[in-house]
Amino acid sequence: MNNPLSPILAEQGIVILDGALATELERRGADLNDPLWSAKILLEQPELIKQVHLDYFRAGADCATTASYQATIAGLTRRGLNYTQARRVIEQSVQIAHEARAEFWRDDENRKRRVRPFIAASVGPYGAFLHDGSEYRGDYTLSENELMDFHRERMQVLVDAGADMLACETIPCLLEARALTKLLDEFPNTTAWFTFTARDEIHISHGETIVECAEFLNSNPQVAGIGINCTSPLFINGLIRNLRAATSKPIMVYPNSGEIYDAQNNQWLGETSCDAFGMQAREWYENGARVIGGCCRTTPEHIREIAIWVHNKNPVTR
Fold this sequence. Notes:
Layout: H1 5-12, E1 15-16, H2 22-27, H3 39-44, H4 46-59, E2 63-65, H5 73-79, H6 83-106, E3 118-123, H7 126-130, H8 144-160, E4 165-171, H9 174-184, E5 192-196, H10 210-217, E6 223-229, H11 236-244, E7 251-254, E8 260-262, E9 267-269, H12 277-287, E10 289-292, H13 300-313
Helix pairs in contact: 4-6, 4-13, 5-6, 6-8, 8-9, 9-10, 12-13
């Protein structure tokens, strides 16, 4: 069973994830005002996605998270693609990440003081397909089996396309985590990380406690890491403390900028709370997080801040 987190943690003590993909594409001029969100760019500007992956590698990220968060069979066929075309788009998200990694790793300069990056295939929640902000609520009407049916085909395509692991991310409710872990049984050689959105330092978006979620996942050998993403940095330290009490798995945090997404008007509101991201990452590490990156509205510069601290603290010797 391949767990790409383990060798990196053994070598440098921390895994540096990438930052936002969708909002970084927007920052570079892409129009994501669409139910497909970042998956729209797989159809229109795949080279731009590759460039973002490359820029995160250059900033110090040990991972590329694929542009498959909102790329689902249901969403793509609803757009007008046939079944075969929809599968191909999802495969392409992994292929682009592979191409970016190969290009980055060919340069000997990029190998200095670095581990070889891995590719995590994003499995976004059912709420992302709905495109109504429900990944921050989890108020679904589907059963566990219906959620499994929704996610199964995409997970199969991502595994077959050669992702190193799955990133089950932005999960708002324990019900969806249960469905996804049951699906993992169908892919016995695959590992996945599980990260939830949270409403405060104790509860995930739907209202279950992060402790309850971590306790459920902790004994599953295919779960490589457990944590939080797309949540305000202000809640992260408290969430880490609660996770430490409930799991022996590597704790993962990749918060957003602290702004709040208005799904009705497709805009981010409020102020950022990530202006000292490198210092915040150091504090999260000291509190127990071992896999750290950024989510919506973070950029390669935020990841660079983490990498500068990590490699000054614990340089990789070769």
